[in-house]
Amino acid sequence: QVQLVESGGGLVQAGGSLRLSCAASGSTARFNTMGWYRQAPGKQRELVAISSTPIGSTTYADSVKGRFTISRDNGKNTVYLQMNSLKPEDTAVYYCTINWWADVRYEYWGQGTQVTVSS
Question: 84 near 115, Cβ under 8 Å?
């Protein structure tokens, strides 16, 4: 069983920064996609940023490009999200996810961490 443990959420003023971390434990595939989604109250969950190995490709939501940076420490099976120039509209629960294809598609989610940006 795979577990994802997130940390780093909190309350910050607009223009500030936060760094989220997510560590995966258990049996994961060497080549996988890890990343972050978020869900604001009354809205659907949306992609924030994802990163795939072995190519190292990244995808960002248009709303966070230039402000957020995703990175990985593959040796630690950990993904990070550096969030700069935060805006009130970034307020949401941020979820870490990992997925890969083997015989079937495997997908796991963390419990979520709250990010609140005050104006």
Answer: no
